[in-house]
Amino acid sequence: MKTSIATVSLSGMLPSKLTAIAAAGFDGFELFENDLLYFDGAPGTVRSMACDLGLEIYLYQPFRDFEGVSAAQLQQNLERARRKFDVMHALGVGTMLVCSNVSPQVIRDDALAIDQLGALAELARQSDVRIAYEALAWGAYVNSYKHAWHLVQAVGSPYLGLGLDSFHTLSIGDDLDMLAQIPGDKLAFMQVADAPVRKMDVLEWSRHYRCLPGQGELDVTGFVATALAAGYCGPLSLEIFNDGFRAAPAELTARDGLRSLRFLESQARDALASAANTEAAGTLAPLPPAPASADLQFLEFAVDANASATLTTWLEKLGFLRMGRHRSKDVTLFQHGRASIILNAEPDSFASAFFMHHGVSLCASAFRIDSPQEAAMRATKLGYALYEGRVGPNERNVPAVLAPDSSLFYLVDELPDAPTLYESDFHLTDFDGPTEAGPIVGVDHVTLSVPGDTLDSWVLFFRAAFGFVAEHSVVLHDPFGQIQSKAIRSRDGTVRIVLNASVDPRTIHSETISAYKGSGLSHVAFRTTDIAFAIRRLEDDGVPMLRIAQSYYNDIAARFNLDDAFVNVLRKHNILYDRDVNGEEFLHAYTEQVDHRFFFELVERRGAYDGYGAPNAAVRLAAQATHRG
Amino acid sequence: MKTSIATVSLSGMLPSKLTAIAAAGFDGFELFENDLLYFDGAPGTVRSMACDLGLEIYLYQPFRDFEGVSAAQLQQNLERARRKFDVMHALGVGTMLVCSNVSPQVIRDDALAIDQLGALAELARQSDVRIAYEALAWGAYVNSYKHAWHLVQAVGSPYLGLGLDSFHTLSIGDDLDMLAQIPGDKLAFMQVADAPVRKMDVLEWSRHYRCLPGQGELDVTGFVATALAAGYCGPLSLEIFNDGFRAAPAELTARDGLRSLRFLESQARDALASAANTEAAGTLAPLPPAPASADLQFLEFAVDANASATLTTWLEKLGFLRMGRHRSKDVTLFQHGRASIILNAEPDSFASAFFMHHGVSLCASAFRIDSPQEAAMRATKLGYALYEGRVGPNERNVPAVLAPDSSLFYLVDELPDAPTLYESDFHLTDFDGPTEAGPIVGVDHVTLSVPGDTLDSWVLFFRAAFGFVAEHSVVLHDPFGQIQSKAIRSRDGTVRIVLNASVDPRTIHSETISAYKGSGLSHVAFRTTDIAFAIRRLEDDGVPMLRIAQSYYNDIAARFNLDDAFVNVLRKHNILYDRDVNGEEFLHAYTEQVDHRFFFELVERRGAYDGYGAPNAAVRLAAQATHRG
Predict the structure, then answer these.
(1) Options 3.30.2170.10, 3.40.50.150, 3.10.180.10, 1.10.3720.10; CATH of B295-428
(2) pTM of the model
(3) Interchain CB contact of A80 with B (< 8 Å)
(4) ipTM of the modeled complex
(5) Where is the VOC domain positioned along the sequence (chains A, B) (predicted)?
(6) How do residues A387-441 score in pLDDT, each as one tens digit?
(7) Which of B8, B37, B509, B560 is the mutation pick for testing A, counting most A CBs within 10 A?
(8) Does the beta carbon of B42 lie under 8 angstroms from any beta carbon of chain A?
(9) Which residue ranges does chain A devote to CATH 3.10.180.10?
(10) CA–CA separation, A194 vs A175, rounded Å?
(11) B165 annotated binding-site participant
(12) 3-class DSSP state of A473
């Protein structure tokens, strides 16, 4: 499909917006009228700029409060439309978006609206332009695509079609049954936008919280698939009103925007194919398939000499064994249970550059999947860059995708009867694994602290590049601000990543407590089968656990009606407790901080508990603030 | 009245919260249970800390979902309450807040709720504590103070009173008639919070957007006055859930918090006094009265040699005359019409320190009022610092109040038959004023760019210290983000100040365009009686006006149905146009930027137009972004 974006979705002035749109690879754009108004040049100049950049102008928008008015007002509105049609001719754009009237004075009369839209269609015919009539979710009288379609159908002019917008339909929970029945040639334009589900006034929601398809929680795929099945054959166009995007660099938004459309198109294709609509599916571009399942192969830390010593001590206390050294690099492999951790001390590598900026931090993760080349191709098609590292003789060339913070996600497969990645690349100490099983089973999840203004980019990255699924965001209370937390997992549920972002920039830049980083803390959570047993073992080995305030235990005893002996075990080992609505339990505990931005967690999932102990996050954050001193 | 604040209103850990509360001068606090939970120490330790700081613990809160439950649940809830009462005894706090049940499973039966609250009151009697039962605005069954009072009254126990919260009542638009009738001894506690009016879910509104009394738009004064008239005699306690406060330093929030309570108390006193309730008014502490009227006496810029030359050139082109030099300082007075501008080049003064940080900027403003000493005393009582400058022989000692950014607001009076401030402090060039009247009448308004996280502090400053009134905020669209704009004016409407704050910190730190400052731009708007005439004069004198995009004029011609000749005048002089719902008109134009953060505006108000041309702000911001290059 042709790809398009409304200029209102981007920050900056019109020329730089168009440059960003073209650089991202869109086919064209919707011109938001204010962008023309603020541009100090003639419409013809905009036409030339677009032409020079290879961009088509698909739509001129918005034209407001046209229908359901008095006869005198109609004449003024038609005159206003005529002037816009002149501008459109100068711009070289064929379609104008007309939004349903939002004035409280609107005359609530379908026959009148049909007459007036008919007059507009006739004017459009004379000017050889086309109208896309769109129902705003907060339209004063017409506020659903069904009502708008009723009017458009009644007018019956080829110069008046329906304008679709996924947000306006999905935000009010409207069904898509009628959409499937509308003739494709009557669907004049389709705008797409996603949004997180919020309980708020729909106008405010639309104006400030829209996001790119794949970043939110609306079924944009179902909406688009339905319109395509009905025969829509215009461009797929982003119209995103988002407070963050208004301040973000246009280049980044445009690049993510095109990714979101490619992802959306492939998802719509899959949806149509599953519905056996091969004809409609055939018009859409596929992406190489996302991995059906994924496993966390290893986590890689960038270290200098100090960090290497610190982390090695921590890992040894946590029962990790030094299992190998890389054949050609200063890279060490540690393993415990199914958890593999790599310390990369290689100078002049991507890792060392990463370390310079971030302190002790994850510089790479590896997903074990079935078809790494296919997945890498998918990421490339979505505009994500691949990293090509130096590869020694006989070492494996493992593709890696660059994440929004330039950390790497390696894509690894292991074939039967072939050497494993570790065998290829490492001198292994003891290939048969640790002689004694430790208390850690493997990695449960990884929590990444990301800047607030990149959270949406991260969500799109995991969803689009790897086909991961995202959960509803939760807000965590840090003593110095709020943290938005979004959990992501692989489709099979095996890889779990939690993204934490400070809502207020002051939270991570607080000067109140030196080196305080708020959500700047990342951590790795290890799974255990018996957390109390594990902590006893680890404490014996010198792992310092984060002390939890004693009042917490009085509170959970009362809140969950727990027996004293059990609470005493939790209290003794500083274990936090959560129980879900089905009675499934989660026990977890934290180590003290490894450095100013990193720590470990131990978890025990009982039964089908599926979360991360979010109700306890504030307790943990407060304990960290207390013991940071 | 005793002053109190809920610990949940402040950032940080409990010990630092209490230190901030004591330092600000509160009498006591409400202990939010989570703060105790996160504190790694016994309740007795909190009691000692509070005692050492001279703070009383007025309330333990919140206790949730007590009433309207099954018999079995009631027993659990009573047991839970009993445990809390034990904690309260250890803390030394006598009152517990019980919030109305928010569970969808609540049993909607008054008789049952009365029985169960009666059982709680009986338990409270046995433990010698008191319950304040509060209706949450989103309570599942009980959601108004009227309903809560019906239950409390029916129980009829001295151990069960009504908990009031201004937000819960005002947010749902409830009237106060019944409140006035409740016996004072049944009003167990009163929490106060203000909020901007927002169209959103009341729970979300309450949790994220509350602000200090005086910073929002609810009639908190009327609420408090009614409760006091009814005989409430407990503390006035702030409970502010605010995303910004969660990340702000606790000391600043606490200091503004106490100011807001002093201001609220004095306003409630005035309200009761006007209602001839001298008895209730007599229990409240007054503030020295705010000035009934104010005029802008002068604006003072901090300048170094370069800035002095730049501004002098600009002022001379704008028709200002150099009217005097300060008797003892390197300070120059310029005047044009009723506008006075002072350039302060004094080294080692507050102004020079100010200039170092801000570039060309307003370092002081002077309000001409009737009783400067009284107004200064008022500001002092509210905890605002006064500035005492160096005063030469025979010069006037003018009190000045420090604003949130440490700029000064001088308070000046002029008495008949006494030398004016200018006569006292300046060698005047020409005391009789300019020989020829220029096109500028005086200052219309001043727009201050303030950091987003200080906007609420600024609003409170103007409202509390000077008794100014605030208008509803509007959002302005900058090409690189959004700006929240709040207009403030003196009670008589003469002094007008507009506060602009970038919503997203990236807007003022954008690296896209070098030296781009978003809302970082401040400006002074001069009033004219004929803006086209004024601009012709000023352009002749070399004042460069900001060029407006030509499309703007086509748009307003169509939008307002303006005649061509008029539009041509606007277009020729780059004048922007607005018209209000009553047909009153506003014409305004901007100069090019004086430096990277300052410019001038010229305005002509026709008839009773009362705004600032907000619909044109985006046009101005876009033009500035364009011509900044």
Answers:
(1) 3.10.180.10
(2) 0.93
(3) yes
(4) 0.90
(5) 295-414, 442-572
(6) 987 777 778 889 999 999 888 999 999 898 888 999 899 999 865 555 566 799 9
(7) B37
(8) yes
(9) 295-428, 442-628
(10) 16
(11) yes
(12) coil
